[in-house]
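subagent[fold] <- orchestrator: predict structure for attached chain, return tokens only, no commentary.
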Amino acid sequence: MVDFKFTPQIEILSAEDGPRRRHWSDAEKIRVVEESHRGHRQVSATARRHGICRSLLTTWRRQYRNGELASEIGPAFVQVQVPPEMDTPPRQLAPNVQLEVLLRNGRRLLVSSSVDPDALAKLLPVLEGK
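subagent[fold] -> orchestrator:
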């Protein structure tokens, strides 16, 4: 005779069995967020690559944009040196060319190519909330 009595298998799980929650430094978060800004539709792919959910990366992107993530590197202007063989008169850009400036807090600023660099240098700290 066959016994059809059902006996369920029980498995007891504890918190020690699963992976522990990871802690990300602000520098690591910034690196992942900046990677997600490269290219089109990179949020999900970047999140998958780093083993985090898309909503967490979206939260980090918002924090980055609002300047809530600490960054060791501040905005700076870099001096450019032109070699003597390239010392030709500067080429005039068309008046409708726009330059895109990516601020440290994640905001993007579009300015005309004819903007005064001194005025822009005074405006950037205000836009970054300093």
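orchestrator: received. Logging for downstream: The radius of gyration is 26 Å. Helices lie at 26-37, 43-50, 54-65, 117-127.
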